[in-house]
Amino acid sequence: MTEVVAQVPGTRETGGAAPARGLPRVPGFAGRPAEGSPKDEGKALRVSVPRAAHAAFDPDASRPDAVTAVEESSRGRLPELTPLRVGRMAATPFAFLRGSAGLMAYDLARTPVTRIGAQICGDAHAANFGLYGDARGGLVIDLNDFDETVHGPWEWDLKRLATSLVLAGREAGADEDTCRSAARDTAGAYRRTMRLLSKLSAQDAWNAIADEELVSHSDAHDLLGTLERVSEKARANTSGRFAARSTERTEDGGRRFVDAPRCCAGYPTPRPPRWPPRWRSTSARSRRTATRCWPGTRCTTWRSASSAPAAWAPARTSCCSSTTGASPGPPGEGGPPSALVPYLPAAGFDVPEAGHEGRRVVHGQKRMQVISDNLLGWTTVDGHPFQVRQFRNRKGSVDPAALAADQVDDYGRMTGALLARAHAHSADPV
Description:
430 residues, 37% helix, globular, eight-stranded mixed β-sheet
C-alpha cells in the first residue's frame, strides 16, 4: 500500500550509504575551507552570537494571535478536515505546538542564529521521531516528518525539539526542574554528537550511531523497555494488515476502501491513480523494476487524513488488487510550501526558488535520514504536487507526553543525538 502526500534535494539512493549521482550537491561535508580551523572559526562566532544570547526571548509586539494564525494556515486546505485539525491541536499545549510549526517560526526568526545552515526538518517536534522499516525488514529510528523541511538555521530545529520536550514533561507530570533538565540534556546530546561526527569522514558520519548503539551513545537506558514494546507493535503495523482491515471485496472481485467518517473516504468510482508512471521515475533506480512487477491490475483510491494534530493536507492512499490478494500501493499526500519560508530572510537565509513541493520534501528527507523509504518519490496528481511513500511500513512511535517523568530526559538525549546526525549530513562548512 502506498500513500501520496502533496508537498528538497537528497544525497543518496534509498538503501545505500553513498551519495546518489544526479542529485544536487549537498553543502557541508562536500567542501571545507582551504584555510583556517573550522573549530576556531566556530568559536569566533561566540563573539557575535554568545551562547547566553539564546536564553533571552522577548515576544514581538505584533506577534500573531494564535487563533488567527491557525485560521490563516487552514486557507486553501480541505475544509472538512479543519475541525479535525483544530480539535487535535486544542487537546494539549504539546499537541498545539506540534500543529503550529509556522507560528513558532515567527518567534524563532526573532532569536539569534549563527547563520550556519543545514537541511533542517522545520518541525523537529519530539513527536516527529519514530520507527519505520528498512529494506531488509529491520527497524530504524529517526526523524519521520519533513513537510516543512528547508535549508535553514540548525538552531530552529534544536529549539523546537527542546521546547516540545518541556511541554511533554509537563504533560507527563514532571516538575519544572525535570522539564528544564530534559531541554538541557537534549542540547547537550546534540552538541556531543555533532562533535563526534565532525571528527569522522563524510561516509562514516552518514551512518554513524547505528540503532543498536543509539541508546548507549545517548545514555537513554531507561527507554529500553519502552522501545522494545514499540518495536514489537511496529513490526505488525504493515500495509498488508491495514489493507485487510480497511478494504472490502467488490462484486467484480476487486477491493475498495471502507469509508471512515471525517478521516477518510473513497472516491465516487474506482479508478487507477494517475501518478505511478511519473512517480516511478523519481524513486530509487534500484526499486523501479520491483514496482513494475506489482501484481495489481485494479486500483481504488482513498482520501485520508494523517493522525498528527496538524492533519489537514489532502492525502491519497491506493489499494492495488489482483487474484493473489490486495495490498496498499504507494500513498501520496499533498501540501503547501514550507511554513518556515516567510521567516528565512530574517535569519539571513535565502528563500528557495519555487518548485515541486513533493520534490522538496523527498529530497529533504533523503538528506536527513540515515536510510529512507524504498518507494519514496514525488509526482503530480490533477495538477497538485504530491510526495509518494509506503503506507504504514512498520511505523511505530513513542509518545513523549506519556513517558514516566524520569524518562523524558532520556528521550531528549536520544532525539538530540538523532537530530545532530540528521543535520551533520548537510551542515554548511564554517
